[in-house]
Structure to design on (376 residues):
């Protein structure tokens, strides 16, 4: 197992009364800017519950943060923060709202020119304190320091992260997910599943605890996803999936082990070019990456095959994974989204960012095109 340093300061408030507890963790004197997306929180009652919990605190709102949060939209929010002098941000929504709010928090305190440079390597020196009320479990953003932001004008989708951007707390009430439609639910399951595989399905470094925690998350998602699809208001299934999504990317299972993330980096380019949901790109790209990397991932694929799928053939585990995605309603081919060409520029886009991918750094930008051609 590799040496590591692990720190996660996010307080988790979990359960049916989680939202009512948020006031205990926000200063009474705070000027709060609540951020959210398209307004679904007003339809499902979450908005009213948050307003009630905040009580008499000074409150401002910014809505319209879209899936794959756009830099252009977020910069409007930055101006709003400065205009009202907000000193606490509360993201209410899914991972895109949380990611976007992390950027707002950092960009509002950035004084070195265009805040897009934060996505190009500029250091985050400070950020407005933030927290979140999660309504769509998927990304794990509620309990980590990273975010992925899109720039419509540049057709770019990039990652940034900083210890300054950890949410101070995350309120996770599984009842808020009852109203999610099938697409949102399946996206969340696939997103979390691939997050785990990117940290687990690499090569052995004698990390049995991390391996078994990762396998536990995978098995739980496999067991619980059909239950929640059959009964969207199955509280226990919703709760288990919500907790899996947080555990998949809060840093714990990634301690001391090699990471991959090739599927994510290639997937980000598909989102930037074609507007596919993040999880949709992962389900398309992952089988191609695993098949190409079969030889270098053989040991962990064999372990994954035995422990998760009760199969002996490592290749069969790849097939089983793709079939699981399809079983819960996720497409796994580009052609199923009407995409049979147009992705030829992906290698150049990766090359421009200096990306060499995979846990062994053996996936060159040009190999991404080989992988995508197998996924049509």
């Amino acid at each position: 197992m590799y040496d590591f340093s692990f720190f996660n300061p996010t307080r988790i408030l979990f359960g049916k009364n989680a939202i009512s507890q948020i006031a205990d963790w926000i200063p009474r004197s705070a000027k709060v800017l609540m951020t959210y997306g398209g307004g679904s929180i007003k339809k499902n009652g979450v908005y009213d519950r948050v307003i009630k919990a905040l009580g008499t605190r000074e409150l401002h709102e910014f809505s319209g943060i879209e899936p794959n949060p756009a830099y252009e939209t977020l910069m409007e929010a930055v101006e709003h923060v400065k205009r009202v002098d907000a000193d606490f941000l509360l993201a209410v929504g899914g991972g895109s709202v949380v990611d976007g709010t992390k950027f707002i928090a950092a960009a509002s305190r950035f004084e070195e020119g265009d805040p897009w440079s934060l996505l190009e390597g500029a250091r985050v020196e400070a950020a407005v304190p933030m927290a979140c009320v999660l309504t769509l479990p998927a990304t794990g953003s509620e309990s980590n320091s990273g975010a992925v932001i899109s720039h419509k004008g540049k057709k770019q989708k990039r990652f940034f992260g900083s210890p300054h951007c950890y949410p101070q707390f995350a309120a996770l009430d599984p009842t808020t997910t009852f109203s999610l439609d099938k697409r949102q639910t399946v996206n969340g399951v696939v997103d979390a599943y691939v997050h785990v595989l990117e940290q687990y399905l690499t090569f052995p470094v004698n990390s049995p605890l991390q391996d078994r925690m990762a396998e536990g998350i995978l098995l739980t998602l496999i067991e619980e996803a059909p239950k929640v699809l059959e009964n969207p208001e199955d509280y226990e299934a919703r709760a288990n999936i919500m907790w899996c999504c947080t555990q998949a990317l809060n840093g714990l299972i990634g301690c001391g082990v090699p990471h991959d993330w090739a599927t994510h980096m290639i997937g980000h380019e598909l989102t930037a070019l074609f507007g596919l949901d993040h999880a949709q790109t992962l389900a398309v790209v992952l089988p191609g990456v695993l098949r190409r990397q079969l030889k270098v991932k053989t040991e962990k694929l064999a372990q994954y095959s035995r422990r998760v799928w009760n199969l002996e053939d490592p290749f069969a585990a790849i097939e089983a994974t793709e079939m699981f995605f399809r079983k819960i309603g996720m497409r796994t081919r580009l052609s199923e989204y009407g995409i049979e060409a147009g992705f030829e520029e992906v290698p150049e886009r990766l090359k421009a960012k200096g990306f060499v991918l995979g846990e062994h750094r053996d996936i060159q930008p040009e190999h991404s095109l080989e992988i995508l051609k197998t996924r049509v």
